Amino acid sequence: MLGVLVLALLLVLGCERSQREPAVKVSVKELVGMRGCPHCHDMRRQLLGPSFLEISKRYSEEDKERLVESILKGSRGKWGEHVMPPQKIPEEEAEVIVEWILELKKSDM
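The structure assignment produced for this chain is given below.
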């Protein structure tokens, strides 16, 4: 019985560590792909949701918190009838994704 409890504790602690520190560093584009964003968003054209470039052009640095909240809690009615469901990702990842999106308007896309 004690062995089962120790094993359960190690599994829980291992999961907590992996959520705080990713084992492998990835680029933001890879992170966006891993999180499934391209299922609804393209770089330049509208799919179910607006393109990343359209989002970048509509919002500014002052909108970062609102965009992070839209990713984490979902949104409705900002880009038409489609609903963006809440995304189950760490807030830090949502912040990195938002910063990347906002930088797109500065690039030569």
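Interim note for the steering committee: The chain has one domain: 25-106. The chain is about 50% helix and 5% strand.
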